[in-house]
Structure formats: structure tokens, C-alpha cells
Design goal:
By secondary structure, the protein is of the alpha/beta class. Helices cover about 45% and strands about 20% of the residues. It has 2 domains: about 60 residues; about 180 residues, Rossmann fold (3-Layer(aba) Sandwich). It is built from 9 helices and 7 strands; from the N terminus they run αααβαβαββαβααβαβ.
Amino acid sequence: MKPDYKNWMPKGMVLSALIAAAVFLLLFVVFGLTGIVSGTLKTVLFTVFLIGTCIGLCVSVWMVLMYRAFSYRGKRQMSRKIIEGVAGYIRIPEGGRGLDVGCGSGALVIACAKRNPKASFVGIDRWGKEYASYNKPLCEDNAKAEGVRNVTFAAGNAVKLDFPDEYFDAVMSNYVYHNIPGDRKKYLLETLRTLKKGGTFAIHDIFSKSKYGDMQGFVKALKDAGYERVELVPTTDGLFMSRWEATWMALSGSAVLVGRK
């Protein structure tokens, strides 16, 4: 039995884009290149369906390339590189506890659990319709396939975590908060609320100014509050991906927020 961590670009989204492009192409051919309609209406339909076809094809190609790059079975395997890279920041003492916010298919929390076999971990996610193939049974099956027993999974929401203050020895996350509308710094603080004094954190996300605002100011605020060794480590300069990859994949601004409370 092998783990199935799915793909960060869901196959259903790729197929939907391809179908949409095919539909626009068919409509373009039927109404734009034949004599079914004529005059001004034909010109309008020709233009609309041509634009729709071009956009649909561009989006489809982009999604296919993303799917190939993220695939765990492909050549690039960017997902695996990111997961192993983030997990490398997590070290928990024997008997300690770790939390993965937005665990998806369980890849990150399982990787952390493998690196820290004497600690216990919990992965939470709301497993929404956007990633319908991700669910708790999938996570549990992946943990079993990896031979990992020190991890559990539960439904949860990053906006309001159902854990007390200073409960975990480490918290981690990968590409989660930028998907949630609202004050994303507030969501980061909600996660850090559950971290023990002396605990470590590693949060990978798209920390662009458009999504988060002034992250350097946020780092300074954490340091002023007593956090130690807080750093925003860019991951688009070769650490996890090249700058060119980050640009065409719309991942510019990706970085790991790491430190100790």
C-alpha cells in the first residue's frame, strides 16, 4: 500500500478547465465559422467565443503544467520538496505535541511525525468542497501506508482553533492561510496562540504584500512580544522553487515563517 497525497492542483479542476475550453471551441466553430447566424450577431458570437476559447486554453495549459509540477509521481515533485523542507524545521522533544493547521491529505504532519517518532501530532482541516478528494479517512490511510502511528486527524478551522493556549510544542502549516479571506495575520496569531513558550513554528505560505500586508512589520511585532529567532525565509530563490517557477505558478512571495516562541 502506497500513500496517496493527491495533487495540489486537483484533477477535477483541470478536467473542468479542459471541458470549458472544449465547449467554447465548439461554440466558436458552430456559431462563429458557420452560417447558422449572420450579421452583427455572428460577429459578436465570433468574438465572444474566440476570447473564451483562448482564455480556456491558456488556463487549461497552466493547470496541466501545475498538475505535473506538483505530482508526487512526476519528475519535478515540487510538493514533496516543499513538504520535506518545511518538516525539516520541526523538532519536538520526547512526549511533545505538534499541530498541523490545514493538513489536507496529511503529507506535512505525517512527514513531521516520521521525523519525530517520540512525539504526537494532530492534523486538522475543514476538508471543504474546494478539495473534495481530501478527507479524514484519506489522511488516516496515508499515515497507515507510511507506517506512522503517532498522528491523529480531526476536523477544525484555522480561523478559530479548538485548542487551549500554549498546548503544542510545535505548530506548522503549508499554503493554507492565503486561501482564507480576511485578516490573515490574525489567523497566524490564532495558530501561535496554541504554541507553548519555547515551542517552534514553521508556516509556509504566500506572504505577498497583497495577501498579508507588511510581513516584516509582523515579524518585528513577534520579536517585540518576546518571540525568538523569528525569520521569514524566502522559498522562491531555489530553496523550494526557482523565481521563474514562482512567477508562472502564481506563488511569488512564498516563504517560511519560522521561529521560537
